[in-house]
Structures are given as C-alpha cells and as structure tokens.
Design goal:
By secondary structure, the protein is mainly α. It contains 13 helices and no strands. It comes from Sporomusa silvacetica DSM 10669.
C-alpha cells in the first residue's frame, strides 16, 4: 500500500508515542530513565566547550572505522585467528600518527611559513584590492553605466573583497586556535578509541532506555543514522582533500601567490555544500586580479573546470546518494546553521538535516507501516 501523509490530530500520534507513554505510566523505572536522559541532555547542552573534542572524536571514529575493520579481518596463521579489536585500533592509530608526522613535515611546516608571509602581506594586499576596486569604479564611470547598476557593482565588489579576506583570516585563525587547545585535543584519540572499541555496547546502552516494544525500531533508526553520518563524513573528507590538492596544484602551476593557503582554504570551504566552493574561489580570483586580468581569467576558468569535475565526477562517485536532500533544503539548512553558529553551523547543517530526515521518516510513517503488514 502507498504511504499517505499523516494528518493533524490523532493520526499524528503514532504507536511509538502511544505505546511508549502507556509503558512509562505503568513502569516508574522507565520514567526515571527518561528523566535522567533528559537531564543528561540538558547538562550536555550547557557544557559547550566539550563540543569540539566530541565532534572531532566522532569524525575520527567514522573515518578510521573501515581501516580498523580491515585490520581485524586479516587472518593470523593457519587457525584463522584475528587480532583483538583493541590492538587493531592501536595499530591503526600508530599508522595514522606516522602519516600525520609525514604530513606535518612536508605540508604543515611549509604551509605555516607561507601563511605567515600571507598575514604579513595582508595590509599591502588590501591596499592593492582597494586600488583595483577604484580602477573598476573609474572604468564603470567611463562606460556611463547607470548610477543604480554602478552602485550595485561597487557595493558587490567591496563587500566580496572584504568578506573574502575576512573569511580567509578567520578560517585560518580558527584552525590555529584548534592547535592551541592541546588539552582538549588530547581527549580526541581517547574518545575515538572507546567509540571504535565499544560501539555496540554504547548502542545497546541507548536502546535499553526504550520500551521493549519499540527497541527494534530504535535499533533501525540508530543504524540508519550512523550509516548516513559515516558515509557523509568519509566521503566529505575524501572530496575535500581531492579538491584541496587540485586547487593547490592549479594555483602553483598558474603562479598565483600563496598556493598552499588557497589549497587549504578550498579544503575547508569544500565542507560547506553549494556555496563553499564559491567562497573558496574568491581569494584566488582577487590575488590573480592583482597580477593581471589575464591571470584572473585563467583562475576563473580553472575554478569553473574544477567545479564541473567535482559535480559530475568526484562527488557522484565518492558521495553517491549519501545525503538525499533537495538542493533547496540544503540551502535552507545552511542559512539556519549559519544564523545560529556561523561557519561551524553551516558545516554541520547538512548532516544534521539528513539525520532529522531519517528520524522524521521513521516517526511519521509508523501508522502506515503497521497497516501495510
């Protein structure tokens, strides 16, 4: 039978709520558990400093989990024994640490030097950008563009330049501020270790809080939400790294200043769907415009090609249909996330919206599912 949208009134009260409320009334123990759970959520919402290490630990967990599973699956000897999961996790951590050491040596240190040069040149760059804007304004006056259109162009150029430079500086300041919070970051591998090792136990601990009549549905919801987050994070990390490397390579061969900075900026802004690549391209276009209009055209063409490769090749093959959201819903989610939490909110908006869609779908059609059986 086809699914019909739920209507107002009793049609919205699903078996999840009706049976759950009845069970809670009959069982004081369940009420106590729910109260403790709500209290825990309230306390968690008030301790915002732990959000950063927790989010990073979750990201690390989802990124490394396939590698841990692969190590555990390797047979040892003729008896087909396997490494204990805890040892496999430590081995993956060790290999990850070696990889990060190589990245720090050959990428991070050169990037820091280039970024320091960029910060030192920023006042000079801003002066050049202002001169470029004045030149464009003069050309607009000579072309006798109507005042309304000229004002729109001037405001747009000035706003875009200021926003792009400010965004670049704030993004990198945020990255370096993460590095200064060493005590919090030291918690990340510890949390990730226990998430990787005890995921099933943690899931069972959440499921047991619910009445037995709906525990299977809760399991389905948790597993589907975990799959959405896992696929999204791993896919987004891979896509961001690929785009960052492509932008760095392109800017390096086009001889645009600060290719490492522009590559890392592209990596960071790629996490913001739809508008992220546009934001990441503005600083490169401005830097190229300071050299010559021809270089600016080449950079614009390069970013257009990268955007087409991303949309038609990279994202479909890596991300697939992980986030099955309409573009309009993605844009609305970005606006809401940006309004509440700025850039961080925009990065988290899409996966949160996808999780809410999974949860809503399971709750909204429970009545129809029961009728179809």
């Amino acid at each position: 039978m086809g699914r019909k949208p739920a209507l107002a009134g009793n049609a919205v009260i699903t078996p999840l709520f009706s049976k759950g409320i009845t069970t809670m009334i009959k069982s004081p123990a369940v009420v106590i558990k729910i109260i403790i759970l709500l209290l825990g959520f309230y306390i968690f919402s008030q301790i915002t400093p732990i959000f950063l290490p927790l989010i990073l630990a979750i990201i690390v967990t989802f990124v490394l989990n396939p590698f841990v599973n692969a190590v555990v699956a390797i047979p040892l000897g003729t008896k087909q024994n396997h490494l204990p999961r805890g040892i496999a996790i430590l081995l993956v951590f060790l290999l990850t640490g070696l990889l990060l050491t190589l990245i720090t040596t050959f990428v991070l240190f050169p990037f820091i030097n280039e970024f320091n040069k960029f910060v030192g040149d920023l006042p000079r760059l801003m002066t050049k950008i202002q001169s470029l804007i004045m030149l464009i304004q003069q050309q607009a006056n000579l072309a006798q563009i109507p005042d309304n259109f000229r004002q729109i162009i001037e405001n747009g150029l000035g706003g875009a330049a200021t926003y792009a430079v400010s965004l670049t500086r704030n993004a990198f300041n945020t990255v370096f501020s993460f590095a200064t919070q060493m005590i919090e970051l030291l918690i990340v591998p510890v949390l990730a270790y226990y998430f990787l090792k005890d995921w099933r136990s943690l899931k069972e601990g959440v499921v047991i809080l619910f009445p037995s009549s709906i525990q299977q549905r809760v399991i389905n919801i948790i597993e589907e939400m975990a799959a959405v987050v896992s696929n999204y994070i791993r896919g987004q990390v891979v896509v961001s790294v690929i785009i960052g490397l492509l932008v760095f390579s392109g800017m390096y061969f086009l001889k645009v200043d600060y290719p490492l900075v522009l590559g890392l900026l592209a990596t960071l802004t790629e996490a913001i769907p739809i508008i992220g690549p546009i934001i990441g391209s503005i600083p490169a276009l401005l830097l190229a415009s300071l050299v010559s209009p021809l270089l600016a055209i080449k950079v614009a063409a390069f970013y257009l090609i990268i955007h087409q490769i991303e949309n038609n090749i990279i994202v479909p093959h890596i991300m697939g249909h992980t986030i099955d959201l309409h573009p309009s819903l993605i844009i609305i989610s970005l606006l809401i996330g940006g309004q509440f939490y700025g850039i961080t909110g925009m990065i988290l908006a899409v996966p949160v919206a996808a999780l809410l869609k999974v949860l809503l779908r399971h709750l909204w059609y429970l009545d129809d599912d029961k009728k179809d059986r």
